[in-house]
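Q: Here's a chain of 313 amino acids. Please give me its 3D structure as C-alpha cells.
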Amino acid sequence: MPLHPEFELLLTEMAAAGGPQLIDLPPAEGREMFRAMQPMDGLPEVGSVSNRTIAGPGDEIALRIYTPTTPPELGEYYPVLVNFHGGGWVIGDLDTADSSCRDICQLANCVVVSVDYRLAPEHPYPAAVEDCYAATCWVAEHAGELQADASRLAVGGDSAGGNLAAVVSLMSRDKGYPSIGFQLLIYPVTDAASNTPSYRENAEGYLLTAEAMAWFWDHYIPNAEQRQNPYASPASAADLSGLPPALVLTAEFDPLRDEGEAYAKALANAGINTEQVRYDGLIHGFFGMSHAVPAGRAGVEKACAVLKDHFYG
C-alpha cells in the first residue's frame, strides 16, 4: 500500500526543515540531534520511575525502572521486561526510549527496566551485548527489589535494541541463564549482510536509509568479518531451537523489513512460537513516534497486548 499520509506529511516537513544528516555528524552530535527529536510533553503516566546504576562488565550501567499504576494481576509481583533502546548501537539513551517504556509499562501492566548500554564507536562490539546481558542477569537476580517476578522475564527492543534482545535471548540460552520467557523484537536488525530486497526498495527517503545503516555498522563493528557472529547477526546462528517465544513487528517502508521477517520465519522453522506482523504504509521508527504520529499506535497496542497475554494469560 502507499506510504501512510501521516508519515508522508512527517517526511515532507522534515525535508523542508533541512538540517544535517546523521551520517554527516560526529556521533556525539548525532546523539544530541536524536535526543532533541523525542517528545518531552504528554508522555504516558506510570506509577513510578526511578533511576539507578549497577556494576557492569566495563563500567557502571544506568537503568531506568518503570512501575505501573495498577496492581499486578497475578500475585504481588509484576512481570518484567528488560528493554534495550534503538539507535544503531551509536545513538539513543534512556530518554529517547522513555515514551515507549512508559507505554509498555502501562499497557502490558509490567515493570520495565530500560538499559543504558555502552555505545559505539567509543565502545564497539561486543560492549553493548555484554552490558545488555549483564543487566538482564541483574534483573533476574534482583527482581524482588523491583516488585517483579523473575519467572516472568521478557526482553525487548526496537531496531538495534531488537538486535540486542535477540542476541541476549541467544546468549541466555547458550549460557543456561537467565531464563527468558519472551522476546519482543520491534523492526530488529538481524543480519549485517544488508542485501535484501527491502534494502534496495527502501534505501532512501523513509527516514532510516541504507547508507545510515552502513554508518551504524561501521561504527559498531569496524571489522566486517565479526559481523556474522551470531551475537552480532542473530540470523547467522546455526541453531535457533530452545529460544523464547517471539513477536516480531516490521514496517513496509523500512530497509530492515525483510531481515526481520526472515528471522521470524527462521524462529518458527526452529519450532519457536513466533508471531510476525508487518505494518503496511509505515516506516522504521513508528513505534517510538506513535504519540506524535498516531498511525503507529496499532503496533504499540499489538505489542503490549501480546506481551500482557504472555505474562498473564
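Q: Can you summarize the key feature?
A: Residues 160-175 form the longest helix (16 residues).
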